[in-house]
Specification:
Layout lengths: L1 E5 L7 H10 L4 E7 L18 E3 L6 E5 L3 H11 L3 E10 L11 H11 L3 E7 L8 H16 L6 E5 L8 E3 L7 E9 L5 E9 L8 H6 L3 E5 L7 H10 L9
Parallel strand pairs: 1-2, 1-5, 2-4, 5-6, 6-7, 8-11
Antiparallel strand pairs: 3-4, 7-11, 9-10
Helix pairs in contact: 1-4, 2-3
The structure holds manganese (II) ion.
């Protein structure tokens, strides 16, 4: 099996090397990742300038750096290296829980894989003062991949690993904590005003969610889907606001 490994922290992140090492047990691995950090780039794609790649072997793995986003890396990487079946993204230095799904480049790479008809699995772990202990995490990543290998119907999965030795693995749902988008003003050393976007959680962690699992020391696996349609709202809208009753001028 051909496996493309990518991330949003950049091709030289220790997380991508750790993930590639585990992935080697399952098949042929190519690393194709951004040449610089692209965290929080979301699902952006590069359309106004050309993309290029350069070979840059990493710890014995065939690897390439791309002057683009994580989503670009998946599109370009699977175009140049054909017949990829599985795209792994991470291991991100920083959790991707709940609303992170919207801005995470790590998850965007997995989503891009799913959009292109491949399986996409994203891996993240909290960013702490010290580098994550990948030697502790690797066997758990391997266990998750073994588990997911027997569940091919799951085309897109968001996996989060705790910072310390996991207690086990849990299936979870995405936490949707609402938050105050708080803009904090400050000034730079030149006296010019600038602003930080911060978030302030206003709800407790919901049981059974990704955040809940991580807070309790478990590996969290959340199956995701690309179709964001709210089926109940659609059904309700069709019933309560039938279009054929509306007359346009
Ligand atoms: Mn990142």
């Amino acid at each position: 099996m051909r496996i493309l490994v990518t991330n949003d922290d950049g091709v030289y992140s220790p997380g991508v090397a750790a993930l590639a090492e585990v992935a080697c047990m399952l098949g042929d691995v190519h690393i194709v990742a951004p040449h610089v950090e692209m965290s929080s780039a979301g699902h952006a794609i590069t359309a106004a300038r050309p993309l290029t790649y350069k070979r840059t072997p990493i710890k014995g793995h065939e690897a390439y750096r791309v002057n683009g986003t994580p989503a670009d890396c998946v599109a370009l990487g699977t175009h140049v290296w054909q017949n990829v079946e599985l795209v792994l993204s991470g291991i991100n230095l920083g959790s991707n829980l709940g609303n992170s799904v919207w801005h995470s480049g790590t998850l965007a790479a997995a989503k891009q894989a799913s959009l292109l008809g491949m399986r996409g699995i994203a891996f993240s772990t909290p960013a702490t003062e010290s580098e994550p202990d990948f030697e502790v995490l690797k066997p758990w990543v391997a266990q998750v991949l073994t588990l997911l290998a027997s569940a091919p119907e799951l085309s897109l999965v968001n996996v989060n690993l705790p910072a310390t030795m996991p207690k086990g693995i849990l299936w979870t749902r995405q936490s949707v904590r609402h938050y105050d988008g708080k803009v904090v003003p400050a000034t730079d050393p030149m006296g010019r005003p600038h602003f930080w976007f911060t978030v302030t959680p206003i709800e407790e962690t919901e049981e059974g969610t990704d955040r809940w699992a991580i807070e309790r020391g478990y590996v969290s696996m959340t199956p995701l889907r690309l179709d964001l349609t709210d089926e109940d709202a659609l059904e309700s809208a069709r019933t309560r606001h039938p279009i054929d009753k509306i007359v346009f001028g």
